[in-house]
Design goal:
The chain is an all-beta fold. Helices cover 0% and strands 77% of the residues.
Length: 64
């Protein structure tokens, strides 16, 4: 059950780049930044959780 005056705060941004040197392979690099949080409570101002995150991923794909 969620508190009646709880407010969720969520956003994220993602940037990706893909390089395809030949027809049968490609390489990708992805960076993501985000924030998750929730505040509120029953009659009082409470911070339930609040955190930021960074994510970097790299992929290589071969097509047969």
């Amino acid at each position: 059950m969620v508190a009646p005056d709880r407010h969720d705060d969520v956003y994220s941004a993602r940037v990706a780049a893909t390089y395809t040197p030949v027809d049968y392979a490609d390489f990708s690099l992805i960076y993501e930044y985000g924030r998750r949080g929730a505040t509120g409570g029953i009659g009082i101002q409470t911070e339930f959780f609040n955190y930021n995150f960074d994510s970097i991923s790299a992929t290589a794909r071969l097509y047969f």
